[in-house]
Design a protein that fits this description.
Blueprint (H helix, E strand, L loop, with lengths): L1 H12 L16 H54 L6 H30 L4 H33 L2 H34 L9
Helix pairs in contact: 2-3, 2-5, 3-4, 3-5, 4-5
Amino acid sequence: MDEARDLAIVLRAGALPAPVRILEQRTVGPSLGQDSIDKGFMSIIAGGILVILFMVLYYRYSGLVANTALILNIILILGALAAFKATLTLPGIAGIVLVIGMAVDANVLIFERIREELRLGKSPRAAIAGGYSKAFITIVDANVTTLIAAIVLFQFGTGPVKGFAVTLTIGIICSMFTAIFVTRIIFDYYIWHKKIEMISI
């Protein structure tokens, strides 16, 4: 007990002879961080272009409607981040890339339901109404469960994880708005005002 007490006193006093020697020294410049940010932006651009091309090739003019909603979605996300004065970090960029895929996923569900309605012989107006109504619950369920996960990440995560969670949360809300309401408004405009009789989907 006496030796342990003496050792505790020495440790508290900081008198233990433990020399510090430099074994390795590295200098990291700011170019490393800038390089990562540049690659992150390139991933957003590359991912966006690939998604846009796929939607146009597979869904034709309806794919253009989805791409319009996708571009608006990205603008809304960046606008919301600017409004909250949030810093766009690498995890945040990863969240945007993920949201790009998720935003189009909702349109894919809607378009497939519209195709099913058209195969049943329904008119374009009825097919669009049926497609949106049938896909709505599925889209909400998928996005709400992801939103819950994002909230948990924000609540219990550290700095970078919180950045990812914030971007993901904003992206989910924006993608639901653009996928469900914006694309529906565009379709309704062409159905009601342009009186189209066929849907390119």
